[in-house]
Model the fold of this input.
Amino acid sequence: MSERPRRERLLPFLWIPAVVVALIVLLGVTFRNSFQLEKLREQSVVEATLTLANEKADRLDKSLIEQDNAVLALVDLEERFRFGADWLAVAARQTPTVRGVLLVDLASQGREIVGFASRAPAPEAEDFRRRLVYVLLPEMDLGREPRAELRHLHTTHAGQSYLLSYWQRDLKGRRHLLVAWHDVPRIVHDVFPRLYSDRDPHSRVNVVDADGRIVFGPSLSRGGFTLGRRFDTTLYKWRLNVTLISAEGLTAAVARRRRLEMALVGLSWLVVIAGLTVVLVAAARERKLSNLKSDFVANVSHELKTPLSLVRMFGELLQSGRVENEEKRAQYLDIIVSESERLAALIENVLDFAKVERGKAAYDFTRANVGQVVQRAVEACRVRAQRGGVELVLDVDPDVDDALLDQRAVEIAVINLVDNALKYAPESERVTVHARRVEGELRVEVTDAGPGIPAEDRKRIWERFVRAQTAQDGRVRGSGIGLALVKHIAEAHGGRAWVEPAEPKGSRFVLALGSS
Done:
């Protein structure tokens, strides 16, 4: 039997740390997941922006390479006298950004241009021819062997940007170079607006040169979600920048979501801590109440056992016929009657308290004289007072008249107060019961000259099963329900009950009834 209560006492001490550890782990996991989710959201935005930048850059490269392939298909390198004629016929429609096509003999001494077709004005075309031979050809990656694949040159001279597409070909044993001259300003003013339209509701785009100057598009914010990449094959000296219009809003939403999650975690912790506190307090109160109930059962058992033992003992003496004289016989009978009344009063107290605990206490209010009710209660306690050598004095003021009350309940309350005075103040030579009217209240005051009640116990003793420290130190037996019952009776009559110190010593218990 002792092992089970021990386990029950140890269980909360093991369970509560386990709950706290579990909560700490849950908090750590929640914080980690929150940060990981934030990183994943940011990463998803970055990846979406990078994917969009790649798609837009590849779109330009694809558009220009398609024109380069069209040039290669339309130009017949063998027909020098009609060089580029077929291309010029469809150039405006199929290769709108190509201004001219040139064929250079790389094997000649001065790298002679042996074929030329242009859509540009003659002076501009002639200027480009000289610039190609003396400036641009040295920058091309020609190598020593012919390269059939398409290549590009993107460079700037004299403040002007050039984009050339070129192929190496072997014609009759001689290396030749086919060059397509792209119109870069036209790419900026015609192709860029078509490919990177402002009508896109999700992104903004601009193109900057090698020095960071904007070539096309608006200025973009320098937030963490603006990404740039160079064009792979064509305008590789320029960089395409892309920013998601919704990135700032998404960043703010991520921050708000994280703050909300942290707030919810904090609130959850507060709720859990409050719950644990409530559980611990409730468990402590339950243990305390259980202990008080155990004390109550022990005290009530002792209270019942004492009068029963006396009744049995004196009853057996009378039954045996060993009583010496009639005076002793009468004395024994008085003791039996007194203890029976005490036993009946205790049982009535327990039954009435049980009704109060179950919420089934019912009061029968009738109009009666308060003084007479108090007098009957005092007379019920007089024999016990005389046996203890205590003078029980009743003082009823003339202005104490009839009131609406439950006579039996008020009698029980007064008897409990007088019984407390006789029990806990045995050294008091006199106990005074005073009934009077004060400020519209009917008050019954029971005053003793005992040791008094400490200030910290004056409110607690009205709670169920609670007894004053002086009563516990003096090993005075009691049930701990008498004053709780008195308080309930007082409140049922619209009044109150309290205790205050008496002069020069002792305590004064006051039962105040409503002025009905």
